[in-house]
Amino acid sequence: MERARLDRLNDMLGEVLRTNEFYRRKLEGRFALPLAGPEPLSGLPFTTKQELVDDQLRHPPFGSDLTYPVERYVRVHQTSGTTGRPMYWLDTEASWDWWGECWKTVLEATGVGSEDRIFFPFSFGPFIGFWSGWEGARKVGALAVSGGGQSTQQRLKSLLDYGATVLVCTPTYALHMAAEARRSGMNLARDSAVRVTVHAGEPGASIASTRQRIEEAWGARCFDHTGATEVGAFGFACEAPAEEVHVNEDEFIAEVVDPESGASLPDGARGELVLTNLGRVGSPAIRYRTGDLVEPRRGTCACGRDSLVLRGGVLGRVDDMVVVRGVNVFPSAVEGIVRRFPEVEEFRVDVVQSDGMAELKITVEPGAAGAPAGLAEGVVESVRDNLHIRPVVEVVAPGTLPRFELKARRFFRG
Ligand SMILES: [Zn+2]
């Protein structure tokens, strides 16, 4: 690790160990500062989500991962709590500014600049989601337009009225807006000035067929971004044409470990992403097990950046993988196949038990035009050819399945 980053890591740890109760309990006496060597963090324990959740239960409401007195903090957000009790996360003026800088990196990598008008069709609720993107828009000097407190139809009108050139939302919501627009006789690729879309919250923008669908619907280039409330906005897509996400290694130390044993894995091996952030001293995450499954590689990208790259972005949650008839199946792989069918507007995947064996059931919902003949058979065949398992596919009427503005939930285990 180069000197400057190692110095920042040591400065951060020095400050955190002085006053941060959570990490003091966890780390005191485990190592001596300054850390050195090519893998300076290797002697430190991991931090898990469960530890942080337990800590917040013991020290409500904000827990003890706080380096400063609560009065120093200026922002609070919460996790979506899809896997249990939501967590609250505080930021200081300095760390909130750092979030904005990380998002500036995300936006600049896509070619967005001060001449752009960025539309945020986001409810601006308690989730950090695009609040941080909103700060990033200010950092690049772009005009930020809020789509909060509006219906999808109002958002479409507002996006056109303001002449927005950039859209920031989940991939699912970008597709939903496009479908709503079509129903109202609009063609966003033709009628809107949007040239860039930036997505987070779900892996979609790094799934080739989903990305292509967004690009066609909006007549824009689609970019992925990866981040999490607990760690920050750590990944960005560049203008090179690939389904890959760069890790912002100026601000994050990334490791990839075996999800079972925690042993570190060589470059190129699929594993769980572990992150340490350098700029969130007030409420840091040190060797945090993100639960995200990634396939990293190191090398120079066509864009000229030399960084760790996640192939396919975040592939899914480590615990999302199911074994169906001996085959490892990830939700993103199923999405990648289903989205190749332009007639399918929404879908849902259930893992059901049949005679003690896991089976895949895929429910597909066509757009207003209805399902063409042979749609179900086509999906069955495509899944069989690509994943080597035979799913059950059911076609339901338009409007049957739920729609999502934030994290879409389409994968269920029975
Ligand atoms: Zn690149």
Short description:
With 414 residues, this protein is α/β, with parallel strands linked by helices.
In words, what does this structure look like?
This protein has 414 residues and is of the alpha/beta class. The protein has two domains: 95-317, ANL, N-terminal domain (Rossmann fold, 3-Layer(aba) Sandwich), CATH 3.40.50.12780; 321-413, GMP Synthetase, Chain A, domain 3 (2-Layer Sandwich), CATH 3.30.300.30. It is 29% helix and 27% strand. It contains eleven helices and 21 strands. The strands form five sheets. The chain has a nine-stranded mixed sheet. It has a four-stranded antiparallel sheet with strand order 10-11-12-15, with no helix packed on it. A four-stranded mixed sheet has the order 20-19-18-21. 43% of the residues are buried. Zinc ion (ZN) binds next to loops.
CATH superfamily of the largest domain: ANL, N-terminal domain
The main sheet comes to: 9 strands, mixed
List segments where confidence is low: pLDDT < 50 over at least 5 consecutive residues.
Answer: none
Class inferred from helices and paired strands: alpha/beta
Percentage beta strand: 25-35%
Number of helices: 11
What is the general shape? globular
Overall number of domains: 2
